């Protein structure tokens, strides 16, 4: 028998290692390409399957729930794919399959275990679908916040806001269990509107906490809260708060109309809503009052106005907004009437000099030095002879340095802001004068202007005053006091033309028919004389107290 010849096969890597390595790399590249294509194909197939299951869904719904638990699960997983913080828990509700889905970190899992799993998984729960779920679901789920949801869009909204969704085989609905528990900031003191005497609580970023604080301030059943959501993607919760028998007729409808016209995908700040509902977006003056104080919101809605409270922001909006509302402070009502009246009058005067004092200085020094006493005029001329720049450039330089230091102090951490303030005071108050860039009198004028703007109770109004100083300086440098007068007339006419939800910005100040409102405007009279609510807001019941209709 012939001896078989042995065939020896050698590996390519033994003969030509470089060629083998090259072929291996090409194969790996091809494999990666096929893997990527496969993943993309799987994504496309998942989208096609999701679209095929939308046969009976309305245009605004991703799909419709069915009585099949498996189909509902697959539909949910298509929408919630790549969401690793979504947790699924499968269990038996008696004899029926069920599962609960929730967002990790947004839900109190202890409540889910006690109110859902222990209740539905109990040994004594041997009911079938039709008897236990359709007719007696409220006896099985012991959560205080329970809702049956048939629309998938509403179910996803509840899921993303911290509710747990329970699905049971044979039921074409979801049960939303309110068990919200997430990290939130505690209630703290106001940062921008703190007072010496008065409440020291402020809004936080949680809507329900803010509404609770408002409810604690008053127990009036006429206080109404209307909820809605804005933002096509963010679905931010917004609450409209008002007193039903006091609000101006038509104001609620007007606010709802303007909010319904907001077409944006995301709402993160209340200021975005403020800018989108204002009548004059190009005006520097705030046309919607913002506050972080619950007591200010309560006092405002009892004047016939409305508050807009937005989730995820600690600032509430109040409409309509007028000049008088912006100039009021809570401390005006925690001090004696004589003291409060003097402080209010001082505040109005500070608002004037915050805009016009540098412009008046420039116009007098540059164009009208004869208006000054001879001794003061000679002293100012001597100071100006030491500086190389004209008064206008000196004022612009000082205003620029002041704004730079203010912005730096605001942006810096609190521990560093104090040191930055000291450095700013040395640079502005000492170094600039010693270098001969500006004269000391201008430093006093600019510092007085800055301090006057800081007395404004509303930050938005103070920013408007800071903005208007620049055009006033330009007018004063060109036309002198005539330019200042023209600027004053332009600002006054502009404020008179402003409207905030139909109300005149300066109407209560200049309208003689609203003379009764002057008791709490330029000065504050004692409370016994403030028995009527302001007429400028069109309140339904004018009497605060004293008769059966107030």
From TrEMBL:
<dbReference type="InterPro" id="IPR050768">
    <property type="entry name" value="UPF0353/GerABKA_families"/>
</dbReference>
<feature type="transmembrane region" description="Helical">
    <location>
        <begin position="441"/>
        <end position="461"/>
    </location>
</feature>
<dbReference type="GO" id="GO:0016020">
    <property type="term" value="C:membrane"/>
</dbReference>
<dbReference type="GO" id="GO:0009847">
    <property type="term" value="P:spore germination"/>
</dbReference>
<protein>
    <submittedName>
        <fullName>Spore germination protein B1</fullName>
    </submittedName>
</protein>
<feature type="transmembrane region" description="Helical">
    <location>
        <begin position="349"/>
        <end position="369"/>
    </location>
</feature>
<dbReference type="InterPro" id="IPR004995">
    <property type="entry name" value="Spore_Ger"/>
</dbReference>
<dbReference type="Pfam" id="PF03323">
    <property type="entry name" value="GerA"/>
</dbReference>
<keyword id="KW-0812">Transmembrane</keyword>
<keyword id="KW-1133">Transmembrane helix</keyword>
<feature type="transmembrane region" description="Helical">
    <location>
        <begin position="416"/>
        <end position="435"/>
    </location>
</feature>
<feature type="transmembrane region" description="Helical">
    <location>
        <begin position="389"/>
        <end position="409"/>
    </location>
</feature>
<keyword id="KW-0472">Membrane</keyword>
<feature type="transmembrane region" description="Helical">
    <location>
        <begin position="473"/>
        <end position="491"/>
    </location>
</feature>
